[in-house]
Amino acid sequence: MARLSERELVCVEVLVGKGRSLRQVAKELGVDESTLRYRLGRRRAGAVDGRTKQSEACPPFEDAIAKWIEAQDWSGQGERPASVRGLYDDLVRDHGFSGSYKSVVRFVRRRAPAPAVRPARRGEARPVEARLAGRRARVTEVVLSPCEAVAAALRHRPPPRFRSPDADRASLRH
Hints:
Blueprint: H1 6-17, H2 22-29, H3 33-45, H4 62-71, H5 84-95, H6 101-111, E1 128-132, E2 135-139, H7 146-155, H8 165-173
Antiparallel strand pairs: 1-2
């Protein structure tokens, strides 16, 4: 479901009240018309999300989670922060946690700073066959630098195929 803030919903109600069609407003917001109908209907009915009434599974383990958050490097200068999956596994193994992995992820996201954005991007390529040193090899993945990935996207064609130095030498002999 599209995330619409309370402010956006109020704006939608005002625009619709002034004669704009729901279809026009949905198009401007970039959401589906049915999403707006549903969200406006729930707002008019005063419906409350049932999840807000449920208690969280993580507060009894808040001390262990807080220690884990403090031990992470969120600056982006050093190593990446450890995976929340490892925290979840530790909570289950060492502390008897019985909640879900997603509940731990939500709990950590609300309390930890946002990790720094990393400039490196991973590019995936379709499997291609290449001849390397007289043998057939199957290349299934190519990691591109950010510049190469952007350049390939701008050209609207796949990135260049990479050959091994041995294959280059062999092609020079012929």
